[in-house]
Each structure stands twice: as structure tokens, then as C-alpha cells.
């Protein structure tokens, strides 16, 4: 039997690696999960951030990892 305990809310701040913009929110972090990972996912899904190796706010979402591969392939 596994017990899933929620540890939270946890206050997490994610910084934009380009302009230094920051987003600070409370996140419900399931036990065993990294609070930073939860914050990045929420920011990416709901706030237009691009996260990964580096984090970029919606004003700086020029990070080339997300879209270009598929669009480039379709043009071949
Ligand atoms: Zn930024």
C-alpha cells in the first residue's frame, strides 16, 4: 500500500534565464516530486513559459528546442 501525501503548498520562484523576470506561486507538490519541476510544468502549460535546460518567460520564448524540429521536417 502506497501513501501519497501532498506536501504543500510550496512557494516556488522560477526565474527567466534571459531577462530575469520571476514568477512566484504556491504549488501543491505531490510527495516524491520536485517542486521546481511542478512549478515549471505549471508555468509552461498555463503561463506561456518555455522551460527545460533553461527557463524563459513569455517575453523571451525564443528558446529553439520546442517547435522548430517538427516545422523544419515538414518543409523538407
Ligand atoms: Zn524573460
Spatial strand arrangement across the major sheet: 1-2
Which of globular, elongated, flat, extended, rod-shaped describes the shape?
Answer: elongated
Q: For the report, how would you describe the main beta sheet?
A: 2 strands, antiparallel
Count of domain modules: 1
The hetero molecules present are: zinc ion
How far is the first residue's CA from the last residue's CA? Answer: 52 Å
Strand content: 25-35%
Helix content: 25-40%
**What is Rg?**
15 Å
Count of DSSP strands:
2
Q: What is the overall pLDDT average?
A: 81
Q: Tally the helices: what do you get?
A: 2
Q: Runs with pLDDT <50, length 5+?
A: none
* Element order: H for helix, E for strand: EEHH
- Structural class, by secondary structure, is alpha+beta
What does this structure look like?
With 76 residues, the chain is of the alpha+beta class. The chain has one domain. The chain is built from 2 helices and 2 strands; from the N terminus they run ββαα. It has helices spanning 35-46, 68-74, and strands at 6-15, 22-30. Strands 1-2 form a two-stranded antiparallel sheet. The longest helix is centred in the middle third of the chain and has 12 residues, at 35-46. It binds zinc ion. The site of zinc ion has 8 residues, from loops.
Features:
25% helix; binds zinc ion; two-stranded antiparallel sheet; alpha+beta
Summarize, please.
By secondary structure, the chain is α+β, with helices and mostly antiparallel strands. The chain is built from two helices and two strands, in the order ββαα. The chain binds zinc ion.
